[in-house]
Input
Amino acid sequence: MKIDLTETTSSKINAALVQARRDIGTPAIGMVLTLVIVTDEENAYDALKSANDASHEHPSRIVVVVKRVSRSPRSRREARLDAEIRVGADSGTGETVVLRLHGELVDHAQSVVLPLLLPDAPVVVWWPEGAPADLAGDPLGALGQRRITDTYSSEHPIEALASRAEAYAPGDTDLSWTRITPWRSMLAAALDQVTLSPVVSATVEGEDENPSCELLAMWLADRLGVPVNRTLSGGPGLTAVRMETKDGVIVLDRADGSLATLCMPGQPDRAVALKRRETAELLAEELRRLDPDNTYEASLKFGVSRLSTTAPAVPVAEAAEAAEAEAPAEKPAAKPARASKRASAK
Output
């Protein structure tokens, strides 16, 4: 069932929700939390679809806040609230309220959302894109016990990680961190399965500007207390992790984004499933826990700047050409030697 309300209020929306539940024959509320999604019109559909899919595991009231940009000075002064209510089959296993805020109401979204929160139930706030710098200090973010962002959608993901670390508050989390949960579990299990000498160094290989790769590298550096080198690959996403020990190298390699190979000294190679997960699966995982994630906090605050970054490997021929181009013109005889030395170094 869908109900459209124009120029409405929060109290009218609550009354319409109660009436809609009665109309479909489910007057009781069986939802466990309120999920507030702060997004724009462009990303609202995808975010709502992911939330509806996640609601099959976590029945919830989903409140979507869409801030409509006013184009004229007059319209910016006129506050208006439009709402769309979805219950039953149109809203997963819970209820959905899509709020479209116009004019001055855009700056007071929290006053509209507050009356729509489920009583005595946790609140989770999710920004699929365009999250504020200070999540806990944001008026909508202050309503939630958990605040979810996705630095992968940022224009500059690595800079966004630094901003998240500076403004971190208990309850903050990131879907870029959630993406590496299977990797962290597999690497921890690999170290538990074998009796080897301690890890002395590690390498994380993945796409450039991929925050999940950086977070995994920071997690390894923080937990193992060893230098971690960050190398670049063509992806997709995170492609390999290598941990050096005196007894050999532990390698978890996923070249195709789906199936990975785990190699450990003295054991046969084994195939493990490490598929790239959809946003709905990531969101469902985050909704399973509502307490602060101390491991995420420690890894985030470790700092990207403390990692060692290595550029992608350059073919020998290209390295030789680049070296020749950089050699001084007044010393032509030195060019071949310099090119050879640079090529061999590459």
About this structure: The first strand starts at residue 2 and ends at 5. Residues 20 and 26 are 9 Å apart (CA to CA). The radius of gyration is 25 Å.
